[in-house]
Design goal:
oxidoreductase; oxidoreductase activity, acting on the CH-OH group of donors, NAD or NADP as acceptor; N-(1-d-carboxylethyl)-l-norvaline Dehydrogenase, domain 2; 2 domains; alpha/beta; 6-PGluconate_DH-like_C_sf
Amino acid sequence: MDELIPLSNATLGQVAVRVPRYDRVGLRPGIVHIGLGNFHRAHQAWYLHRLFDEGLNHDWAIVGAGVRPGDGAQRDRLLAQDCLTTLIELDPSGKSAEITGAMIDFLPVEAGNGPLIRQMADPSIRIVSLTVTESGYFTDPATGDFDATHDDIQHDATNPDHPRTAFGAMIAALRLRRDAGLGPFTCLSCDNLQGNGAVLRQAVLSLAHLSDSALADWIDAECSFPNSMVDCIVPATGPAEIALAHGFGIKDAAPVTHENFRQWVIEDAFCAGRPDWHKVGAIFSDSVHDFEMMKIRILNGGHQVIAASGELLGLGTIAQTMAHPGIRALLRKTVTEEIAPHVASVPGCSAQEYLNLVERRFSNPEIADTTRRVAYDGSSRHPGFIVPSIRAGLKADTPVRGLALVSAIWARYCTGIREDGSEIAPNDPHWDLLVPAANAAKIAPKAWLEMRHFYGELVDNKGFSADFSAWMTLIQSDGVEAAIEAYTSS
């Protein structure tokens, strides 16, 4: 292989893939984004990059930020390559790559978040966006209420000028802007949460009220929190992904792989202006809820239907689970009979058509999306993606046996032992809580449903509880595959 080209502004003319058509020196910041993981760089940053390529909106560049100590390592990687990213599209018909450059800086990651607060207080910043994971909004999984008891929230309430959380930093910056007469910014969640804008509003306002109710009222009146639906399958980066960048002759310490599909639907509610994202494929709509329900219930819910099963059976990737006839049948039957009936169509796509699309996307053999990554944080994802479909089915008196089986398989997963006896390493922020409950459920299945902070009142529903208990008993005696076969053949 020829010598690899280190990714940087100076070497863009040497790489043999698509590179930015705009002069990055002329870009000016307009967005601070908190949470510089792979998804943001493959999704929101890509839309902005393509907009810049059209010669538009060059005053909306991204300044990256993080609030966790570990974010410093990502900062070092990206600054060393001038905040450029190699995006590698994994299409079954062939791989392609491009270099994106919408991000122009990454703020120092410091205790108290001083650099982040100062940057967000700058009047050039008109949007603060976030990808901080589903569990990062301090909400109770069962009720959706704000958790004001969390240690980090209590710290930020009593130390508002030196916050630990992204929300505390946003509030501190908004205080500076209000006091200086600089006006608000839009707060834009890009996480996989139903009503993510409303969830972000709740987090910011609830925390602000703990220390400064007058500021909270100002934020409520002046800032906007648009809901958005985001969609693109983006695996984690490891040695294989870095090697893929090498295959294009590029030395990139943080390349991103992604599928050949992305979608972004956003409410047009921006208090301080916005880029023209619609000119490069984003959809501005008053019906974000319908799009997000379809995606969260079928795609994100579908991921939870298959991921734990795949992990328990030693299947490493989502594509491998889709090649397993039983798991594929479990996905189709559960979604078709128990999820899709409660999902409205969106323009140009019915729930069943969306399932067909999801099956194709999940089956892409080029996407090395691991079952472990998808199964991570089930304590947020099951309450967010599976439990709402259970409640919808119970309310409509339609079947929920498959969803009860999915819940039982998750419980079996949380015992921490695969079917071959190998150990599952901790894979949830609440792993220490889940494992004892899962082991108790081997003998008394309802012990799992008694976790009301995840399942709410479902343990009191005799029908669902009976279905769940029956599946737990069958899984214990005959295994996961036998339980799947019993359901899909019925």
